[in-house]
């Protein structure tokens, strides 16, 4: 195993981490798949510029420097995690993709979904305390891709490819993240050991050859048969891979008969006015075979889970232990690729449970309840106050995952509201939920021993999440702390800001303090050579409240001498996330579209990332009109991304029209 990089990176020891974990991971995969690595050598190559994060050439994987080089002295936990997961992903491809290759492009999601799923399994092997597959997978994959796949302009994970130009569109987040989520659901309903056995058979049968998804389904069905279970995997999985979107399951208590519940399924869509693409295949005909796990709980205890296969539009099921005061919980540990809604009575019981003793409900389900509630409310399936009531329990929540889920779910809501006149009510409410935990956790000290201690990962990430919420919603103490740390750096010219919160401190400092701080960060951006540091310094510059500085930055972003091509997109997107710069980035994007499209049109992900980043938080009738006019006037490229953008903005406008007032009324009441 060898690693190649520029001489100064090798001298600094920036490649050591990647080299060490690669050795361990080869052993992990050989043991898990029971198929030895197939070549006499494996080289890792770090390059300054590359259109993708990495590429899994057999025996010679190529990585862009930011995704493989790691300077232990100035890297945060999240940067370490990024690097680790990209390496785990590319190594998985040496088996899934290289040794066994999909027959045709429509099954790209198979190799990408597996590699993405194994990012979490492989990282768990390296850092057993981090619980990636059971926890972080939810916020970073499942919740993320359900946002995309809840649009009626989504597409199935398996897409037909007829000509070379179709290939690019097959590589998108649906293939990677939905692929991974479906594989995780499959592993969970099969049982992990049977699943593993099936994968071993699949790789052994097809090594040095090609295979299609049905080959995998058949092998997995056989593995289940061997342990005496019979599920037709192909029949189940075809519905999940050939239909787009996902179901929302609604569980209703039956008023008349005790112990009987009604379970129904329908396709979940954010904008109910959005018409399905293909009228012949209206939403009503969407049905899935759903492995619904369900448990019954009361104040102190939760039952073991039962599995119900739901395949009809609506079904009645008998649940033996259902008493007056007990609640139901569906999709245990959120292993399934669907959302769950309940009658209001059950939501109330769940909220009470969280307030009184949240530990009865697992960490993953607490995170899942938060994410489902925010998204069900956003799509109009649930009153707006339910998600905001759920997060009241967070002041007692000591686990990272539910905080992370809440923070990610609040983000789009915050962006829908951040230019409204009543925004401060929302702001105030969030600050109240964060205040006590912020005081409890405090700030990290600058640990000089520089080791990223495993045990503290959850604690440090929780603290980071709470500080981020406190600073971005304007907690006074958080603002002062950030300003003090920045001033200290400027006056002493020694950066003593703790690694794990640097990006938050830089951004907060730039937004609060004067132009000198912006110039100082700009200067540091030019002088630093460490890749991870450069990235967060550049993003901090987009946090300014000064529109002139934001415009200056946008114009500089297209100068390749100053900003790397792959970073320019991040600059534009981050300016768009800033309420003071949203219209500037949107205008800049439209004026420079020809240049941007020429530069990024060919690179996978880049264009779609840019288009969604600049448009996803537009939410007024005027902006929607501007978007539609812009699409009319500029033909050429990115049609799918633009139709997603239109649907997203339409859903934002619709939410403003239908639900904004309801939300503010409830907030006003709850704050008095």
From TrEMBL:
Binds 1 zinc ion per subunit. Residues 327-650 form the ERAP1-like C-terminal domain. Keywords: Hydrolase, Metal-binding, Metalloprotease, Protease, Zinc. InterPro entries: ERAP1-like_C_dom, M1_APN-typ, Peptidase_M1, Peptidase_M1_aminopeptidases, Peptidase_M1_dom, Peptidase_M4/M1_CTD_sf. The keyword Protease applies. Zn(2+) binds at residues 89, 93, 112. Pfam families: ERAP1_C (PF11838), Peptidase_M1 (PF01433). The record marks 176 as: Transition state stabilizer. The active site is at residue 90. GO terms for biological process: peptide catabolic process; proteolysis. One of its GO terms (molecular function) is zinc ion binding. Residues 17-240 form the Peptidase M1 membrane alanine aminopeptidase domain. Its cofactor is Zn(2+). GO terms for cellular component: cytoplasm; extracellular space; membrane. The keyword Chaperone does not apply. CDD domains: M1_APN-Q_like. Belongs to the peptidase M1 family. This is TRHDE protein. The gene is Trhde.
């Amino acid at each position: 195993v060898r690693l190649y990089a520029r001489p100064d990176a090798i001298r600094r020891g920036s490649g050591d981490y990647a080299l060490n974990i690669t050795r361990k991971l080869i052993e992990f995969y050989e043991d898990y798949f029971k198929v030895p690595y197939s070549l006499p050598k494996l080289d890792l190559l770090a390059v300054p510029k590359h259109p993708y994060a990495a590429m899994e050439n057999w025996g010679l994987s190529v990585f862009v420097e930011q995704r493989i080089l790691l300077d232990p002295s100035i890297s945060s936990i999240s940067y370490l995690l990024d690097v680790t997961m990209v390496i785990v992903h590319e190594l998985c491809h040496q088996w899934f993709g290289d040794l066994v290759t999909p027959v045709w492009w429509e099954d790209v999601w198979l190799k990408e979904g597996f590699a993405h799923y194994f990012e979490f399994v492989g990282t768990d092997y390296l850092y057993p305390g981090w619980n990636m597959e059971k926890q972080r997978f939810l916020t970073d994959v499942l919740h993320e891709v359900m946002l995309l796949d809840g649009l009626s302009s989504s597409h199935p994970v398996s897409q037909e490819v007829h000509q070379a130009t179709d290939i690019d569109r097959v590589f998108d987040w649906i293939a990677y993240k939905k692929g991974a989520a479906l594989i995780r659901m499959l592993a969970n309903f099969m049982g992990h050991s049977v699943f593993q056995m099936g994968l071993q058979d699949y790789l052994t049968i097809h090594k040095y050859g090609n295979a299609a998804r049905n080959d995998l389904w058949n092998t997995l069905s056989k593995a289940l048969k061997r342990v005496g279970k019979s599920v037709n995997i192909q029949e189940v999985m075809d519905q999940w891979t050939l239909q787009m979107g996902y179901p929302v399951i609604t569980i209703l208590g039956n008023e008349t008969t005790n112990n009987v519940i009604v379970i129904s399924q329908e396709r979940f869509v954010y904008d109910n006015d959005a018409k399905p693409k293909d009228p012949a295949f209206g939403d009503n005909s969407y049905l899935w075979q759903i492995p619904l796990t369900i448990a019954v709980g009361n104040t102190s205890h939760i039952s073991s889970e039962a599995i119900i296969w739901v395949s009809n539009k609506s079904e009645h099921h008998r649940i033996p232990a259902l008493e007056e005061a007990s609640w139901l919980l569906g999709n245990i540990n959120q292993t399934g690729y669907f959302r769950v809604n309940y009658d209001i009575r059950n939501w109330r019981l769940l909220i009470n449970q969280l307030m009184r003793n949240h530990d009865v409900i697992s960490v993953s389900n607490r995170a899942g309840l938060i994410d489902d509630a925010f998204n069900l409310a956003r799509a109009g399936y649930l009153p707006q106050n339910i998600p905001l009531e759920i997060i009241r329990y967070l002041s007692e929540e000591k686990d990272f995952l539910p905080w992370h889920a809440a923070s990610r779910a609040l983000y789009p809501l915050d962006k829908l509201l951040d230019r409204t006149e009543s925004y401060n009510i929302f702001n105030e409410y969030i600050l109240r939920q964060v205040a006590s935990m912020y005081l409890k956790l405090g700030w990290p000290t600058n640990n000089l021993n520089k080791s990223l201690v495993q045990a503290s990962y959850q604690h440090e990430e929780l603290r980071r999440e709470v500080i981020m919420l406190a600073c971005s919603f304007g907690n006074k103490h958080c603002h002062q702390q950030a300003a003090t740390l920045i001033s200290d750096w400027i006056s002493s010219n020694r950066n003593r800001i703790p690694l794990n919160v640097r990006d938050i401190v830089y951004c907060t400092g730039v937004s609060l303090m004067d132009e000198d701080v912006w110039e100082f960060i700009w200067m540091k951006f030019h002088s630093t050579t460490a890749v991870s540091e450069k990235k967060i310094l550049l993003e901090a510059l987009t946090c300014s409240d000064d529109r002139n500085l934001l415009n200056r930055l946008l114009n500089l972003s297209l100068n390749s001498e100053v900003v790397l091509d792959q970073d320019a997109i991040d600059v534009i997107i981050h300016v768009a996330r800033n309420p003071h710069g949203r219209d500037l980035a949107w205008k800049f994007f439209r004026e420079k579209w020809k240049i941007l499209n020429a530069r990024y049109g060919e690179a996978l992900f880049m264009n779609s990332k840019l288009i969604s980043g600049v448009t996803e938080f537009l939410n007024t009738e005027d902006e929607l009109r501007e978007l539609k006019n812009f699409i009319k006037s500029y033909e050429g490229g990115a049609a799918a991304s633009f139709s997603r953008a239109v649907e997203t903005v339409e859903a934002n406008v619709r939410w403003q029209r239908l639900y904004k007032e309801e939300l503010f009324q409830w907030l006003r009441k709850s704050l008095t």
